[in-house]
Design a protein that fits this description.
Layout (H helix, E strand, L loop, with lengths): L5 E7 L6 H12 L10 H25 L6 H15 L3 E7 L6 H10 L4 E6 L6 H15 L4 E4 L7 H14 L6 E8 L3 H5 L4 H18 L6 E7 L12 H6 L5 E6 L7 H17 L4 E4 L7 H10 L3
Parallel strand pairs: 1-2, 1-3, 3-4, 5-6, 5-7, 7-8
Helix pairs in contact: 1-2, 6-8
Bound molecules: ligand L6N33NVT and fe (ii) ion (FE2) (2 copies).
The site of the ligand C=CC1=C(C)c2cc3[nH]c(cc4nc(cc5[nH]c(cc1n2)c(C)c5CCC(=O)O)C(CCC(=O)O)=C4C)c(C)c3C=C has 25 residues, from helix 1, helix 2, helix 5 and helix 10.
């Protein structure tokens, strides 16, 4: 067995492989104090119980439409394997927040391998307390000060990363000026933003950077827009919603880029590619295309290499 001193751990949310795992995913998610920010853990547990009970069956129907599992696990496993082939001296692995492999299992594996230093890479381009902070806290708590830890900062400004996004945008359309480009970000409750979460600010900056890059390269979309998808529950979430945005483009062509995700998941494969596609069809949108995330591409592997300073 090869010996390593250093590990790179990719952190993400996870996703269900079965209906039981969907229950686990939702239960862990709504018991996360960074997601449901009520102070009392008992109250959180009770709210989580009722949300899971009311949401499980309808959410499962969505997963059934994409084959009964989230694509996030297989693609992340493939990225891990490719990175292990790329790096001679760093052991690459993953820890998920709401479904296995959990941080506790990952920490045990790293201890057994004699790893001393860990680099954590949250697979979220923009920072949010609900994603980045939650995953980092989870891993750091599980690691019990066992390793020297380094954290890779949010990378939405990284040029290589953004070049990869531009390449994907351009490869999906022949004439950019016929298409309205919508950057679709996962939504967030407004209350979390009002309490200081920088996610909206990072997303706005990211859209500005990509818009400038497109302009510099001479790619002129008919319009460039930002909208938020995946609202859950009755509270006010970030706006405009993707539904409202799509209504602006009746009888026109639309290209969607899922700007808050690195790896394709149920929100891209079901929500964007099936659910909103039907909405677009009803609105008589002439063409509706959804871009792929950077996933396990060579370009994203190179971005990671650069983020590690190599
Ligand atoms: C209060 C609820 C939620 C917040 C806040 C939230 C933030 C958030 N989530 C992602 C990325 C993903 N979310 C995914 C699924 C998902 N998210 C929520 C709720 C909140 N997310 C739920 C209930 C679900 C499950 C599906 C459903 O029932 O609608 C996924 C998909 C995972 C998969 O199964 O493939 C991702 C990825 C981000 C980036 C984010 C904040 C910025
Ligand atoms: Fe989510
Ligand atoms: Fe959703």
């Amino acid at each position: 067995m090869k010996e390593y001193k250093k590990a790179l751990v990719l952190l993400n949310m996870g996703g269900p492989r079965t209906k039981n795992e969907l229950k686990m995913f939702l239960t862990n998610m709504f018991n996360d104090k960074n997601i449901l920010t009520v102070k009392s853990s008992l109250l959180r547990r009770m709210i989580a119980f009722f949300i899971v009970k009311s949401r499980l069956d309808s959410a499962w129907q969505n997963y059934e439409e994409i084959g009964g599992f989230s694509p996030i696990n297989k693609i992340t496993e493939s990225l891990v394997e490719k990175l292990n082939n790329k790096f001679e001296d760093i052991y690459v692995t993953q820890a998920m927040r709401y479904t296995p492999p959990f941080a506790t299992t990952c920490v045990e594996e790293l201890k057994q391998k004699g790893i001393k230093e860990v680099i954590l890479l949250p697979l979220y381009p923009q920072y949010s307390t609900t994603t980045t902070k939650s995953s980092l806290e989870d891993f750091i708590e599980a690691s019990k000060e066992e390793f020297k830890i380094e954290v890779i900062e949010p990378f939405y400004k990284n040029e290589k990363f953004n070049e990869t996004i531009i390449k994907e945008l351009i490869s999906n359309v022949q004439n950019t000026n016929e298409y309205n480009l919508i950057f679709s970000a996962h939504g967030l409750p407004q209350k979390i933003v009002d309490n200081g979460d920088v996610y909206e600010q990072h997303v706005n900056e990211h859209v500005k950077i990509l818009s400038n890059m497109l302009e510099q390269k001479g790619y002129n979309f008919k319009s460039i827009n930002l909208a938020y998808q995946s609202k859950v529950g009755p509270l006010k979430w970030l706006e405009p919603s993707l539904e409202t945005m799509l209504e602006k483009f009746k009888n026109q062509k639309v290209l969607i880029y899922p700007i808050a995700f690195i790896i394709d998941n149920s929100e891209t494969d079901f929500e964007l590619s099936i659910e909103y596609k039907e909405v677009a069809h009803k609105l008589n949108i002439q063409d509706y295309k959804v871009c792929k995330c950077v996933n396990d591409s060579d370009e994203f592997q190179d971005t990671i290499k650069q983020l590690l300073g190599r």
